[in-house]
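Researcher: Checking consistency across runs. Here is DinB family protein again:
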Amino acid sequence: MARFKLNDALEILSKTPKVLRMLLGGLPDEWIHANEGENTWSPYEVLGHLIHGEKTDWLIRVQTIIDHGDSKTFEAFDRKAHLQNKKEKSLPMLLDEFAAIRSKNVQQLQTLIIENEDLNRIGKHPDFGIVTMRELLSTWTVHDFNHIAQIVRVMGKYYADEVGPWKAYLGILQPK
């Protein structure tokens, strides 16, 4: 039994910019640029990654499925492309950019996916092969949760040395 409901996914996708604004807005630079060590991302970098995905991945793949089905393979997504960007934009600028592009993408998605049958359309992923629209949209939604959790984990670890003996009770600070 499929649990995916487009309206639920749209609601979650619409809320992510607000969640990130509430979580990150107004924090000092040391919080938004903190990371978990070498080759890990700060909240600032995660936000850059989310923006890059909005511009070059999710909706483009939706449109590829609609226009070409599985006859055209999705373009590969460079998950680290955002790291090439200079950090010239302030966090409030990135939060505004993410909110604007996500709102536009959600509105466009609502016009592209009209019926439940659209969720069964198939596309071709460069690594996974045949995927469904339902899988793509579910992944987009869970991708948001993944990166919200990542941001929260990084922020929790910022105080890891400050919590003293309570560290033993804080799962977010435990090694995987």
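Researcher: Does this match what you'd expect to see?
Model: One thing to look at in this run: The chain has a mean pLDDT of 93.
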